[in-house]
Design a protein that fits this description.
By secondary structure, the chain is mainly β. The protein is built from 3 helices and 19 strands. Helix content is about 10%, strand content about 30%. The termini are far apart.
């Protein structure tokens, strides 16, 4: 073959493994022995290791300081401007410098965003999405699906899981699957579920919630506080119990709207759960513009939850055989102003009746008998003047005592 310039040779655009290239072997001392050939595959498989400052494969546009190199056995690393960015190993991918402990391990001292999923779709579909898929060939109830752990150091320099979010399967049955999501935090060194989403129920300190919202605690004192910091005289930290018949169904007379229950155990051999008291609200009149409501206060009375006090729109009702007891240390007022009125036995209420004066009397001579609570009449058909006088004195004493009691209770004016 005639000698030709390299530029005059036919270009090979699809090299294969056993194609060869000419090469100068600098390890040979004799010039005659330096000219050799090397297979294309051998060349590609015998790159120098390089380093982060001098990558094995680089780009002239970056002065050769950005490229690929072998940082350790079976480790392919990426260097950008002489700085290690990440490495691929048999165990996975690491970003940044460090000793990886997972298939994907990110090392950084940066305090800005480290992982961002960005999606520019303008449609109504979801995105960006992050899916944790436990692709098990034998899924079963109570299988864990994924765990998001928040780990830090303790004062002894030990790695500790301070909080986590854990997903698991409750029911794996096709068509009736139920899931569990636990929000966990550490308390005195123990990581445990504090909020659990169990199918359609939410438990707070409760791993088996029985209601849409179920709070359980063993601590004494306040278990639930609703706090509002609005700087206003308006009502705040309100609690609204809203009951309705469907999305737009009209309320009806005697609909029970909601009930607050107080529940405890009795002292049976196997203690039973008992509703000891409740406050119930209901509709009395649902008519538009003339609505009336009612609140019933119920307590357990000899084994039955009974309404003992009821407030209607214009009526207060005390249950049968219910006594009204007031404090014994100071007086209790019924009404605190002169315009307030009270009536008995369905009569029209009136202001406090006027004062009734004691009987005034005088004697020109002699002395009236002293009342002692007794009257002795020897012959009722013909009593003596003295006996009648004693009788009148006793009647006066009793009447004045009754008037004094009426004044004491405020039923008549003083």
């Amino acid at each position: 073959m005639a000698d030709r310039k390299v530029t005059a040779l036919t270009e090979l655009t699809a090299p294969v493994a056993d194609d060869v290239l000419p090469i100068i072997d600098t390890s040979e001392s004799s010039n005659s022995a330096k000219n050799k050939k090397i297979q294309y595959t051998t060349l590609l498989r015998n790159l120098p290791s390089g380093s982060n400052t001098t990558p094995s494969l680089g780009w002239t546009a970056d002065s050769g300081v950005t490229g690929l190199y072998r940082s350790a056995a079976n480790t392919l690393s990426v260097s950008v401007n002489q700085t290690l960015v990440g490495s691929f190993q048999s165990s996975g991918l690491q970003l940044g410098a460090g000793t990886p402990a997972a298939q994907l391990h990110l090392f950084s001292t940066d305090t800005t965003d480290q992982v961002i999923f960005e999606n520019s779709d303008t449609g109504v579909d979801t995105g960006p999405d992050l899916v944790l898929y436990r692709n098990s060939a034998s899924p079963a109830n109570s299988d864990y699906l994924g765990n998001l752990v928040f780990r830090g150091e303790d004062s002894g320099g030990n790695a500790f899981d301070y909080a986590s979010i854990v997903a698991s399967i409750e029911t794996v049955t096709n068509g009736s699957e139920d899931g569990i999501l636990d929000l966990m935090s550490s308390d005195s060194g123990t990581l445990a579920s504090r909020i659990r989403l169990l199918n359609s129920k939410v438990g707070i300190h409760e791993t088996a919630p029985a209601y849409p919202l179920h709070l359980t605690t063993s601590a004494a004192g306040i278990a639930l506080q609703v706090e509002n910091s609005t700087n206003s005289a308006a009502s705040a930290a309100d609690l609204c119990l809203y009951s309705r018949r469907g999305a737009s169904g009209a309320g009806q007379d005697n609909d029970v709207l909601s009930t607050i229950f107080w529940q405890g155990k009795n002292d049976a051999g196997t203690p039973e759960t008992v509703l000891y008291s409740s406050i119930e609200s209901k509709i009395i009149d649902a008519s538009d513009g003339t609505e009336d409501g009612q609140i019933n206060f119920k307590v357990m009375d000899t084994g039955a939850l009974t309404t003992q006090f009821s407030i209607d729109a214009n009526l207060l009702t005390v249950g049968d055989a219910v006594d009204i007891a007031t404090n014994t240390s100071t007086g209790t007022k019924i009404g605190t102003a002169t315009g307030q009125k009270i009536g008995f036995w369905n009569t029209t209420p009136v202001d406090q009746p006027a004062a009734v004066a004691d009987l005034a009397h005088s004697t020109s001579s002699g002395t009236l008998p002293t009342p002692d609570g007794t009257v002795n009449i020897s012959n009722a058909a013909s009593p003596t003047n003295a006996e009648l006088l004693t009788y009148c004195v006793e009647l006066e004493a009793k009447l004045e005592a009754a008037l004094a009691r009426l004044r004491e209770t405020g039923l008549i004016a003083t």
